[in-house]
Amino acid sequence: MSATHEPRPAPDDARVIWDADDIARAMRRIAHQILETNRGTHHLVLLGIPSRGAPLAHRLAALIADAEGVEVPVGELDITMYRDDLRRHPTRPVGRTRVPVSLDGATVVLVDDVLYSGRTIAAAMDALKDLGRPRAVRLAVLIDRGHHELPIQADHVGKDLPTASDEHVRVRIAEIDGSDAVTLSSAKEA
Ligand SMILES: O=P(O)(O)OC[C@H]1O[C@H](OP(=O)(O)OP(=O)(O)O)[C@H](O)[C@@H]1O
Ligand SMILES: O=c1cc[nH]c(=O)[nH]1
């Protein structure tokens, strides 16, 4: 997990799976699904997981504002200190957590770009426990690439992308990487 939001170059063999229009369509669908599931914006809080979940959460908030005329609170949940591999990599840079409202009784939607092993989301749930007691916690991801290692499923998925475990999915987000795309490459190149 890089706590600095640095652009990353596409690997040489990266195949573009989704372009900016595909991502925009999926984000619109997810925003509407969130509203349907929550029956509006009541007590809704979006928390993006850095790096790329954070701008995605802001985009969902903008789409929800367009649809409902309501600004839902958006924050960032850094999970670095809650990772289960922290002891093996103790010198990771720590990012920032910013939660703009109380989470007690809220419906929190965690937002991330990729769901893979599920360990990032497990860490996010541990981090949430230190911040309050939401009424419900849901998960929105742009890409679910499978290979979950924990009993974690996303509630809102942009695309289910079956992958081999030696492949790597990269989500490029304009706010960080200069343009939007989802690419698939061999892990050794990623
Ligand atoms: O389900 P998991 O196996 O935990 O993998 C998914 C996580 O991996 C990536 O983050 P990464 O750690 O590469 O950091 P980044 O977001 O800063 O690129 C991705 O953005 C997810 O947060
Ligand atoms: O393929 C992967 C695996 C974990 N995280 C990613 O962003 N991509």
UniProtKB/TrEMBL annotation:
Similarity remark: Belongs to the purine/pyrimidine phosphoribosyltransferase family. PyrR subfamily.
Keywords: Glycosyltransferase, Transcription, Transcription regulation, Transferase
Stored HAMAP family: PyrR
Reactions it catalyzes: UMP + diphosphate = 5-phospho-alpha-D-ribose 1-diphosphate + uracil
Transcription keyword on record: yes
Domain called Phosphoribosyltransferase: residue spans: 22-157
NCBIfam families assigned: PRK05205.1-3, PRK05205.1-5
Superkingdom of this protein's organism: Bacteria
Keyword Glycosyltransferase annotated: yes
Root EC class: transferase
Primary role: Also displays a weak uracil phosphoribosyltransferase activity which is not physiologically significant.
Pfam families (alphabetical): Pribosyltran
InterPro entries linked: PRTase-like, PRTase_dom, PyrR, PyrR_bifunctional
Protein name per the record: Bifunctional protein PyrR
Record-listed E.C. numbers: 2.4.2.9
GO MF entry, a single one: uracil phosphoribosyltransferase activity
